Structures are given as structure tokens and as C-alpha cells.
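Sequence only, no structure available. Ideas?
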Amino acid sequence: MSNEIKTGEELLRVEHLCQYFGPLKAVDDVSFTIRKGEVFGLVGESGCGKTTTGRTIIKLYDATSGNVYFKGQRIVAGTRAYRAEIARAKAEAKQKLAALDKNDPASAAERQKIVEECCRIVDEQREQIRRAKVDHFHSDKLYAKAQKDEIDREYLPKIEAATDPEEKSRLQAEYKNKRRIASRTKLITQIQMIFQDPIASLDPRMTVREIISEGLRIQGVKDKNYIDEKVYDMLETVGLVREHAGRYPHEFSGGQRQRIGVARSIVMDPELIIADEPISALDVSIRAQVINLLNDLREKRGLTILFIAHDLSVVKYFSDRIGVMYYGNLVELADSDELFAYPLHPYTRSLLSAIPLPDPHTEKNRKRIVYDKMRDSDFSHDKPQLREVRPNHFVLCSEAEFARYKETIPRD
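Reply:
I predicted one. C-alpha cells follow.
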């Protein structure tokens, strides 16, 4: 069973996120929110866009279109939708102008009106593109500036008021060090990622100490004793020992490598962890250990986790809310217990039917549900939308399917 949902403030908001690779729509118009302190599970078959969604959020990919807001600040912004709106406005204006009689003096005012409306839309969308580029590429600079301003407000009055030379010197040294670190601080570092492959994600030429402390050194921390103590603390937190700090990744088992990856992700004290199938490459006996480790870190450090997986049984145990993805689309979104009690989308029911149970009699009679989009979903009359069928239970469906779902589920 998942833990009780923590109704905290919104930490991450994804709005109409799209990630296209040429004609391939890896992620297509995905929207969801994650509240502070909760675990949000993102599930679906291989190739459905789960990992691409996580990588776009953390800016390993530049989004095609859509927005991602973290702690109220936009950190990811794509521009394709704005450019498409400019092209649409120009094409529409051209069509309207072609329909008017050029030789009719009475149509001059109408022509002027069409041109002005087109120019207004183009100017608005170009301004949106400009703002999107500023937020996407300079959000970290804006965050660093805000951090430096806060340090100035804290230390400058203290330094000014200090009368003892030693105390003043100490404050000035602290102020200079903190400001130097703040200038290199990035908002995106408060989101960290645990990668799927514990072997490929660790540099084989770096020791464990260097791997875990890399983020601290990039941020500008130079105190070797502080770095070493921080590394030792992280190793002990994830169930390893200090002696492991001097070893290389090839000297560890798969489960230990994944623990090193977890230690590297939490050393920066992030608020959000994107766990990209952190147990899929591990033995069954090790999976429970890693899940329990993440659960402990969540409770002790107040972490918020985006948990990406294809195993619904694991996601149900670990997640507060679950989003189901299929071919780049978010097809269903609900609380964990709600989703398992009332699965509505046929693809969600198909995934649930594939969960094996440790009972030979049940397994013998278990019937798999195969989802066929062309057969099971009718979008010939209207475009599917994510609609709220029950409170906080959203399903990607047409208007006709929405009415049918409303009739088939029990009322509270």
C-alpha cells in the first residue's frame, strides 16, 4: 500500500509538455503536477515516453513546446507552439485577404483590419518566444542572483555593525565564501536524477568519492574535509561504508552501484528526485532494498519523487498518485488506490491484467487484456482530452467515452 498522500504545496507543474524528435512524438501534450512530499508514479510500456518526460523536466533535452514550473519558476519552455500559432495566423490572414476583392474600395478597411489583427497575434507570440527563451536558458542565473541578494541582506548589516576586528573578519570571510557558492548555484540542481543503468551512469575512471562529490565541487565547495565528511555521510545514508569511497564502480555489485547513484543524487540536498526505473536492472532480491532505501530517504529528508517504472505492482506500493502513459500521451491520472480500484482507460486495464500474482491457480485462469487503440478508442468525431471523470481522476477520452465512464463507475 502507498503511504498516505501528503497534501503539500505544488512543487512541480508540467503544462502541455511536448518532446519531438523529427516526426516522432516521444512526448505529446503531457500535463501533471507533483505536490511537495509525495511520490508521483509514471508508468507505461517501454518506449511510451516516460524517461523522455523525466529527461526533459531536468533539461537533459530542450523541450519542443510546453512549460515546466519548479517552485513557481518556469525552468523549461518550448517555443514550437508559439511558432505554430504565428504560422496559423499568417495563413488565416492570407486566406481572408485572398477572398476580398482588391478593386473594391469598400474592402480597404476590412483588409487593414485583417492585417492589424495578424500583426497583433504575431507580436504577442514573438514576445512569448522571447520570454520562453529567457526562462529556459537564464532561469538559473535569475535564481543565483536572488540567492546573492538574500546573502547581501543577511550579511552586509552584520558586517557593518561588527566592532570586533576578528568578528568582522570572520563575517567577511563567510560572506565572500557563501556569495561565491551562490553565484554558481543553479535552481535545476534542486532536481536530481537516478538513472536506470547503474553501470553506464557511473564514470569508470572516477572513484566513488569523486563521483559523489562532483556536484559539490562544481558548485564551488573547496573545503576538502567538508567534502570528505559529506561523502562519508552519504555513503552511510545509503547503506555503504566509508571504505568504499576510494574504490571504483567496477568493484561493486549492481545493487551497490545503484546505491552510489542514489548517494550522488542526494548529496546536493535536492527537493525533487527523478527516479528513472531505478530497480529494473537489478535482481528481484535487491529491488526491495532499493525501494525501501528510497522510502526511508523520502521520510527522513522530505524528498519529493517522480518514480518512473513499468511495474505497476511496485508503483502501487511506492506511489501516492499514478500517471499512465501510452505512446507519448498521458491516458489516465489518479490516486494510487483509486486507479487500482477503478481503472477506466482500456490501456490501464491492460497493464493491470499483466501483473503476475504468486498463486498458481490464479495465474492459470488469469486472462490478459490486450489494448488495441484502433479497436478500443473512437476518436473519429472529437479529439480526446484529459477529462475529470471522478474527483482527481482524469482519463484521456472523447466526449462519448466520458459519458460512458461516468455511467459505469460508482458514485461516492
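The two ends are 22 Å apart (CA to CA).
Hope that gets you unstuck.
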